[in-house]
Amino acid sequence: MDIAKTLQDAIDSGAVPGVAAAAATDKGVIFEGGAGALRPDSVIWIASMTKAVTAAAAMQLVERGKLSLDKPAAEVVPEIGTKGVLEGFDRDGKAITRKPVRPVTLRHLLTHTSGLGYDTWNADVMKYRQAAGIPAVGSCQNAALTTPLLFEPGERWEYGISIDWVGKMVEAASGQRLDRYMTERLFAPLGMSDSGFAIGPAQRLRKAKMHTRGAGGFNVMEHEIPQTPEFHMGGGGLYSTVGDYLKFTSALLMGGGPILKPETMKLMSRNHMAEGVLCRPLESQLPHMSADLDFVDGMRWGLSFMINPTAFPGRRSANSLTWGGLANSYYWIDPARRVTGVWATQLLPFYDPRAIEAFEAFERAVYASV
Prior knowledge:
By secondary structure, the chain is α+β, with helices and mostly antiparallel strands. The protein is 28% helix and 17% strand.
């Protein structure tokens, strides 16, 4: 099956305005290409694909004894220890909270079982934000991280701002801003010269435009993560290219070197959610940003990755690692078959059905070629 043809088919069918993709095995890169509005070297906002990078930074610090998976996160970032658990709202719309019975830990944050949510998929977070006048997390203002816990840490899974707090922990434990830490400890060792929170002059010339789907085709929209933020959004602030990000996923595929120890990568690749905790469907509160999401039954969560419990026919193996970014970018890491791929467009809302179909066609073509 022709991998490049799947990209062009996605353009010709009107599935996406542009797409860039790359894939590798343990032997090296097997494909890198682009079609439509994107080239292989287009600089894209990778959004929540940032989460795995932030997790890798945190796990380096766990290796060095500067962070612990199970000690209270408040020992490193005291502000997280002031959060209450949201119990509801009074008649005036004011939040009612109580003190949690257990502390949030790094393990909770990396598995999205901390109790923190996103307003994009949680009506209570949206209501709290609006009542309290709290800015959205995309503003990169510290106030955006002051929303309460939605439940006791460890009791449920709720996708949210947890990894932004992991970024704060990396900064506190390392004594460096997150951008500098990532550049020195992750991007430089891997040769990821097009990756960062700030868009440099060379990258700006290749920055892809964001699109929305309209009745008559695609509309271009202005979109850029704040370039002088109060905090670097460890949960979704990075820009990169598919080739750069493939260097990162390939390192993880090969056991973590040179950025992580093999035993750390094995630890990150295992389920870390408590027994009975499952990934719940996400009901969009902002349809212009994301569609509703449901998950394959039994999906689990490692230390920042979603893990599929069974093989997908013609695609990835059971226990592969995956996640994506809000502008319909996706990756997977398949340790069993030794295959990894990155597929990206710049299209909102997230989880666009036609984009997903095009991504899956790319993945099938990758596996057919290996």
